[in-house]
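(Protein data)
===
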Amino acid sequence: MILDKTYLGSTEIEKVYLGNDVVYELTPSVSNLYSWSDAGTPSPNEANAIELSTTDGWDAFQNTTVAVSSSEFTNGLYSIQGEALGGGSDQFHLNLTTESGADYRITFWAKTNVSGSGFGRIRNSSGWTPALPQQIFNTVWTEYSYDVQATGTSAYINFYATYPGGAIGDQTFVDNITIIKL
């Protein structure tokens, strides 16, 4: 038996050979739609780290700026930062192309720089069933995970930098984003 991929201390087997013939090959049961463990990684520079798009990528939707943060992150060295410019209902989206009727698992880490009912959250996302629930973020990094089904060929996750009762300059950070098709 020859392992195609070895990991120090791991027992993961991807291929098993008998002579030169592959007799077993691991086939992943999921496929990544979006996997950005070090959200906002500059590649090759910060200007290219965030793709602003109304179809696939980040969209500074309403009264926000979307930028790379190198001061707040949970994994790697960077995160996505949405900052409020208007002080109420300031939103940014992650837009995605999806397969209608397909099941997905959405996982991400988020936090806000302030706390209270008027501050950073996920709310009013579109293209998923069940709808993503409103979730008010903490001032400490917290992981969120949702199993949903796409209702069409496009969807978005709606993040709020602030909500009514917040202020200009409030920030929401998002990192370690993974969306997999189940």
Summary: The first strand starts at residue 15 and ends at 18.
